[in-house]
Design brief:
The structure holds 2 protein chains of 2 kinds. Chain A is an all-beta fold. Helices cover 0% and strands 50% of the residues of chain A. In chain A, the strands form 2 sheets. In chain A, strands 1, 3, 4, 8, 9 and 10 form a 6-stranded mixed β-sheet that branches. In chain A, strands 2-7-6-5 form a 4-stranded antiparallel β-sheet, with no helix packed on it. In chain A, a hairpin with a 4-residue loop joins strand 6 and strand 7. Chain A is globular and about 45 Å long. Chain B is mostly beta strands. Chain B has strands at residues 4-7, 10-13, 19-25, 31-37, 43-51, 54-57, 64-66, 76-78, 87-94, 105-106, 110-114. In chain B, strands 2, 4, 5, 6, 9, 10 and 11 form a 7-stranded mixed β-sheet that branches. In chain B, strands 1-3-8-7 form a 4-stranded antiparallel β-sheet, with no helix packed on it. In chain B, strand 4 (31-37) and strand 5 (43-51) form a beta hairpin. Chain B is globular. The N and C termini of chain B lie far apart (36 Å). Classes of the chains: A mainly beta, B mainly beta. At the A-B interface, strand 4, strand 8 and strand 9 of A face strand 4, strand 5 and strand 9 of B.
């Protein structure tokens, strides 16, 4: 059964529309940020990352924006597909501190056909 | 390559029992981690290791122990299982040099229920 996402905020998106997922991080010294996708019964799957000296990075259908002033991270998914339905987590890390990940709260994305 | 392999995938324990969650990686990563994930939450770090023979506590280490005798293996030990340890446990590994995502790879998880 589903153990991830029971009490998570949910974003419902129409197939084909763009999705924006937001995340607040905690440590202003973090030097690296990562977005993960987690499907039911699976471990986190890497989506995209960004270093602290950047404010935007684009991948295939995904874009990450970093605003260090307000410690905010967002993930934009273009043309959302049914396979994008999952729970999404942001994570921050400081390489000099053992590369440990600190995860933010997740967001469940439900794609409606 | 298998990546990060965790066993078992599922386990039910009675209160007070002990068990070891196994984790092995074949990528020659020097860093390894144990996280737990409770329902509706992100992952929280239990213990981590920066190399063979070196371990350190994470955010939620109480009730757990680890060892790192080889680069490949990083077992997590529960000595006296408690209901609060009911969770999904993820092992991960990473490298410390190179571009991109720091090479973070997660296992598929162990779902533990303590009754």
């Amino acid at each position: 059964g589903e153990s991830v996402g029971l009490h998570l905020p949910t974003l419902s998106v129409q197939e084909g529309d763009n999705s924006i997922i937001n995340c607040a991080y905690s440590n202003s010294a973090s030097d690296y940020f990562i977005w993960y996708k987690q499907e039911s019964g699976k471990g986190p799957q890497f989506i995209i990352d960004i270093r602290s000296n950047m404010d935007k990075r684009q991948g295939q259908r995904v874009t990450v924006l970093l605003n260090k002033t307000v410690k905010h991270l967002s993930l934009q998914i273009a043309a959302t597909q049914p396979g994008d339905s999952a729970v999404y987590f942001c994570a921050e890390t400081l390489k000099a501190a053992g590369n440990k990940l600190t995860f933010g709260g997740g967001t469940r994305v439900l794609v409606k056909p | 390559n298998a990546g990060v392999t965790q066993t078992p995938k599922f386990r039910i324990l009675k209160i007070g029992q002990s068990m070891t969650l196994q984790c092995t990686q074949d990528m020659n990563h020097n860093y390894m981690y144990w996280y737990r994930q409770d329902p509706g939450m992100g992952l929280k770090l239990i213990y981590y290791s920066v190399g063979a023979g070196i371990t350190d506590k994470g955010e939620v280490p109480n009730g757990y122990n680890v060892s790192r005798s080889t680069t490949e293996d990083f077992p997590l030990r529960l000595e006296l299982a408690a209901p609060s340890q009911t969770s999904v446990y993820f092992c991960a590994s990473s490298y410390t040099t190179g571009p991109g995502s720091y090479g973070y790879t997660f296992g598929s998880g162990t779902r533990l229920t303590v009754v």
